[in-house]
Amino acid sequence: MCHNCSAAATVGAKAGPAPSRRSVARFLAAGAGLTALAACTPDAGTRPPSSSSPPVTSASASQTAAPSTAGQPTSPAVTEPGTPPPPTSAPTPASPAAGLGQQHSLTDPASPWLVVNKHRPLSPADYVPADLVQSNIALAVSGEAAQLNSTTAAAAEQMFAAAARDGVTMTLASGYRSYGTQVATYNSYVASRGQAEADTASARPGFSEHQTGWAFDIGDGGGACSFQPCFAEQPAAVWAKANGHRFGFVVRYPWMFHEVTGYYYESWHLRYIGVEAAADMSAKGIATLEEYFGLEAAPGYL
Prior knowledge:
The protein has helices at 5-9, 21-30, 58-64, 150-165, 179-193, 195-201, 235-243, 258-261, 275-284, 289-292; strands spanning 132-134, 147-149, 171-174, 215-219, 249-253, 266-272. By secondary structure, it is of the alpha+beta class.
């Protein structure tokens, strides 16, 4: 539970209003772990999303992969597995990233500059990285969630080691998540809350950065404020925000940019884009990949 949300809010680039009594009441009524986010975010009339919610267990996945739709909205259409990828695209010529010496695709799932958001699904939707490995870092998870693609894993090892030298404990709290796991995770939200609320708490299948191997969530080693807004106060989050760019990482969903990224502040969710690009974003004070690569905002699904 988030015990000092107002302090957590000040960690972001912009300060937001204190949580409303209505949002706190909704959290207390829900009584579920990840809905703690609602008590610690600007009151926009909906619960804040958490695209990085930890996946359901294999046992629950088998029960939620095809939930009853009685009384629930129809599940959204998603890109079918096997859909051919769109033409490769690079940043727009006017984007801040256009000046970098080496350019990469924004649509190829194997590219470090891939941009996945609510307007830009993975193609194919059931993409699986060809080079998944278990990184030699402190793990708070096992199985597929302990894996990353090889490039991200190597960079994470360097970053975690540097944090440790500074006296900061950092763990991998959630890494790769397959298409099938995301189906089960998303469907469990739809079954329990309805589609509208599910879309504020979990990425639709084929729209999750975790499926790419380029992104992961961090913890502080003791489980304090895991996947809650108050994690922004923990040493692991503070250190990663200040130093992640040195190793190629950015905080993918920064504070108060949910109208651009589609998700509220997730201080635990890091995304690898390469040292050159991450350092350039930091030097220019650019908060989102959408702005850096010259793409439109994606606050909701099309």
